[in-house]
Amino acid sequence: MVKKIVLGLMVVCCSLLHHHAHAVVILQYHHVSDSTPASTSVTPEQFAEQMQYLAENNFTVMPLTDAVDAIKNNTSIANNSIVITFDDGYQSIIQNAAPILASHNFPFTVFVSPAPIIAGYDGMMSWQDIKALAEQGATIANHSWGHEHLIRRLPKETASQWHDRVENNILSTEAELLKHTGQSVKFLAYPYGEYTAALEAILVKHGFVGFGQQSGAAGEYSSITALPRFPVANAYADLSSLTVKFSSLPMPVVKQNISEPVLKSGQFRPKLVITLDTRDLYPHQLMCFIQGQGAKKPIWLSEDTFSIQAPADMAPGRSRYNCTVPSKTRTGYYWFSQMWIRPKDDGKWPQE
Does the global pTM surpass 0.70? Predict the structure, then answer.
């Protein structure tokens, strides 16, 4: 009897260890500069400190291509794995970030939009710069043609016309990247982190992987067309808070009732119902945070299913529900984030 119990515990232990080896934290940066907007920037000093921390604390910084392959194939990922990504293609990446990354031999990915590069906007890398990064080993990937709000229809545009326009946008961008860098990895970072089921369907049709800006670790429970990333900038660039995110785990979400981020009129307090694999977590230690409305305890509907709902309407624009819970067997929190995108009361989108 004792032998059976011991063997059972060994099986559970091994199962949990196997589960832990299927997670990666993807970081999202924009500017690495002390002279750019704070809302999308880390200073070179902050970035150097963060990379030094990863180097000194047994983290594995891996290429995004390897992480995606592991998630797709449900194969092992080293514990404490990190991926570094940059959005938009600013000059500070090649000037300030790339030398720091090279000093640690860290791989990274840059998501770029061709239109600002072609126009020669101030502060953007040139195609020559981007090609140089690619030749040095960086992955160059798709961020739409002109960093558009891809989910939004133009005036009087039909659903079919929207589909064709956005599909052409993504494919034209991929062709431009291939022409200038020789790379076509079919990764799309959604501009502003905005996506819908219809946009995800375009990615599926053409074999693309999608990346959002909702926080959390990525792993076997993640949608391959909406992989989470942790934005790192401004208040979210402090190393003391980042260390918690570096060790985060993907929330084992087995089922959820809503995955479409866009809220319809009259549904601005979405009730999210989530079923979890609770083997490695303490369900009643789970806490949620509603952006702009603070912390809120979930309501447990069963041993493995809870609901969370905002007490007031979500504000127009982008917002989130975030939920975290500690692991039973590791130092780290399981992390889940659901983005919401709400138009204004008149149905129009907020100006940005």
Answer: yes
